[in-house]
């Protein structure tokens, strides 16, 4: 099967397609955050001529869900399937198994809603799978990443170890947003800083003439489609959405160290490590440590929001909710305009580190890139000078080290930036004897003295 209309989802589609070609019926699990494109991917695989059944669960009770499923089965061509009242899911699924076409697909989308109304459903599915009597392929799907992982990866759960394929849909990389929105590389970075890699956000953004209008209508307007998106995301996976939202708000407004975050929450650091850990598992925050330090042992770790829409919300929307309630969107837009280049600059740095990580640059294969911050000591400054480096990566063979500076500004001087970096490099404590140092500038625009440095631009990164 060819998949031409999808952006960066062909590998997922082909993986599901290959699984469905196997001789025996498959049990496939697909999960990922809200609006990541799970349902669209599944519907692309469905074949209505084969009488495949796609059922989107809701939050009604068990009997109603069974009734709705039976109606769905009848609508796709399983004649009179809804004329019977099924007392439980096992009876329904066994009856369905007798009626479906060989190797057809049955998909339960938002599977956690079904389990909420019928906690025994995973055990019923376990029983049917273990009997190896199902004629149809079964796909379960859900937006609650934590619940979906629990059903499949928790040894105590009935479905543990039974899935033939487990697919977690991830955000789409930055290089595809320009294709989706029809914009150049610079604009693509700015769009990605707001909408991230979530395809549904891209679709919504595309309905407006420019990024500013989309921000105003979708995020700042209290009735905007994405105005409540952050809390919806947290409700999918977090028991305590208030605490999670508080942590994200604190991190989004510049408190990045564990002690600072704990102090602002008014709790001991040990009391917030678990919710921070869950937010990391979900991909909503990340923890960064200086280059060369062990992530598990380092005490210098800082937390950053790892999701563009969440970061934008907690930086520019949540702090001004009261003003926005009064309809003063122009006031908030003026704040966004003033601070937007710096905000995009943070995103640009992260994207540059992602670009370097595992990449081959000038024939040299590099390991994971990270930031570095710490003191350097020189003869002129024996008390030490605090230094921050945007991009540091060691080559896989350990013979080379890359040091980069990222700027999202319009007028830079490449010679000045290189001179500043080289003045620091000779005092950096992590450079090993004999290592070759490679300086790269990551710049928004062509600078003065461009021949003074190796420069990468937005078009190179995406």
Outline of the structure:
The protein contains 20 helices and 14 strands. The protein is of the alpha/beta class and 462 residues long. The mean pLDDT is 94.
Sum up the structure in keywords.
462 residues, elongated, 16% strand, 20 helices, five-stranded parallel beta sheet, five-stranded mixed beta sheet, alpha/beta
Structural notes for this entry:
With about 450 residues, the chain is of the alpha/beta class. About 45% of the residues lie in helices and about 15% in strands. It contains 20 helices and 14 strands. It is elongated. The mean pLDDT is about 95.
Mean pLDDT: 94
What global shape is seen?
Answer: elongated
| Strand order in the largest sheet | 2-3-4-1-5
| Radius of gyration computed on alpha carbons | 26 Å
Q: N-to-C terminal Cα separation, in Å?
A: 28 Å
Report strand %: 15-25%
Quick one: how many beta strands?
Answer: 14
Tell me the structural class: alpha/beta
**Low-confidence segments:** none
Q: In percent, how helical is the residue content?
A: 40-55%
Helix tally equals: 20
* Main sheet properties: 5 strands, parallel
What is the secondary structure topology, with strand pairs?
Elements: H1 10-20, E1 27-31, H2 38-45, E2 53-56, H3 62-75, H4 89-99, E3 105-109, H5 111-117, H6 121-131, E4 137-142, H7 145-153, E5 165-168, H8 177-181, H9 185-195, H10 199-205, H11 211-220, H12 229-237, H13 241-252, H14 258-265, H15 269-281, E6 285-288, E7 302-305, H16 308-317, H17 321-325, H18 329-356, E8 360-361, E9 364-365, E10 370-376, E11 385-394, E12 400-407, H19 414-425, E13 436-443, E14 454-456, H20 458-461
Parallel strand pairs: 1-4, 1-5, 2-3, 3-4, 12-13, 13-14
Antiparallel strand pairs: 6-7, 8-9, 10-11, 11-12
């Amino acid at each position: 099967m060819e998949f031409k209309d999808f952006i960066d989802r062909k590998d997922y589609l082909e993986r599901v397609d290959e699984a469905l070609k196997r001789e025996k019926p498959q049990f496939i699990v697909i999960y990922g955050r809200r609006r990541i494109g799970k349902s669209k991917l599944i519907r692309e695989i469905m074949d209505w001529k084969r009488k495949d059944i796609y059922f989107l669960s809701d939050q009604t009770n068990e009997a109603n869900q069974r009734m709705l499923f039976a109606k769905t089965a009848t609508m796709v061509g399983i004649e009179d399937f809804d004329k019977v009242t099924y007392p439980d899911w096992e009876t329904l699924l066994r009856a369905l198994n007798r009626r479906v076409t060989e190797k057809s697909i049955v998909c339960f989308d938002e599977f956690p809603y079904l389990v909420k109304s019928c906690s025994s459903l995973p055990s019923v599915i376990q029983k049917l799978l273990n009997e190896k009597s199902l004629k149809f392929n079964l796909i379960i799907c859900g937006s609650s990443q934590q619940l979906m992982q629990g059903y499949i990866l928790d040894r105590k759960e009935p479905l543990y170890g039974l899935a033939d394929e487990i697919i977690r849909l991830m955000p789409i990389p930055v290089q595809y947003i320009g294709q989706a929105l029809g914009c150049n590389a610079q604009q693509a970075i700015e769009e990605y800083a707001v909408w991230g890699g979530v395809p549904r956000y891209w679709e919504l953004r595309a309905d407006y003439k420019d990024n500013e209008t989309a921000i105003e209508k979708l995020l700042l307007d209290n009735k905007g489609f994405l105005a409540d998106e952050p809390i919806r995301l947290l409700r999918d996976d977090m028991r305590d959405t208030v605490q999670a939202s508080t942590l994200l708000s604190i991190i989004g407004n510049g408190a990045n160290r564990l002690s600072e975050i704990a102090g602002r929450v008014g709790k001991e650091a040990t009391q917030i490590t678990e919710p921070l850990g869950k937010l990391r598992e979900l991909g909503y925050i990340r923890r960064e440590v200086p280059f060369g330090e062990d992530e598990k042992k380092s005490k210098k770790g800082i937390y950053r929001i790892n999701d563009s829409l969440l970061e934008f919300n907690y930086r520019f929307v949540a702090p001004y909710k009261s003003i926005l309630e009064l309809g003063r969107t122009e006031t908030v837009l003026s704040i966004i305009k003033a601070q937007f280049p710096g905000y995009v600059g943070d995103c640009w740095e992260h994207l540059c580190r992602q670009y370097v990580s595992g990449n081959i640059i000038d024939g040299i294969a590099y390991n994971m890139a990270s930031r570095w911050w710490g003191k350097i000591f020189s003869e002129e400054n024996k008390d030490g000078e605090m230094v921050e480096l945007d991009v540091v990566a060691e080559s896989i063979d350990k013979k080379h080290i890359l040091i980069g500076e990222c700027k999202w500004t319009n007028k830079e001087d490449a010679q000045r930036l290189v001179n500043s970096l080289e003045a620091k490099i000779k005092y950096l404590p992590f450079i090993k004897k004999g290592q070759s140092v490679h300086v790269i500038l990551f710049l928004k625009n062509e600078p003065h003295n461009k021949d003074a440095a190796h420069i990468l631009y937005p078009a190179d990164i995406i």
